[in-house]
Amino acid sequence: MVPKPAFVPGSTAARWGATAAGRRRGGVHGNVSNLAVVPLPACPGTDPPADVVGAVVSSEAALPEDERVRIERRQRRRRGRRRALERSRHATNTTQYGPGKR
Known about the structure:
3-stranded antiparallel β-sheet; 2 domains; alpha+beta; 3 strands; 2 helices; elongated
């Protein structure tokens, strides 16, 4: 089975065609804490036009400082709640959560 090409609205296709005359494509790499965007030649393995030659240009999307601080604070609160629940569980069921055999 061969999948059909994805639907692209006309306005989007026009915008893509206007960027570097369609000679570049964007590559995106995302992991847990970073998002990197790198433009690549539209046809890999071919010589790029003279105006596109040069080092690979990349950019990294980063959260604003206040947003990052807010997320860290929320995660810290969640960890604290989880730890408090674990301590409560251990305190109410001492037979199951007794000291280790060391």
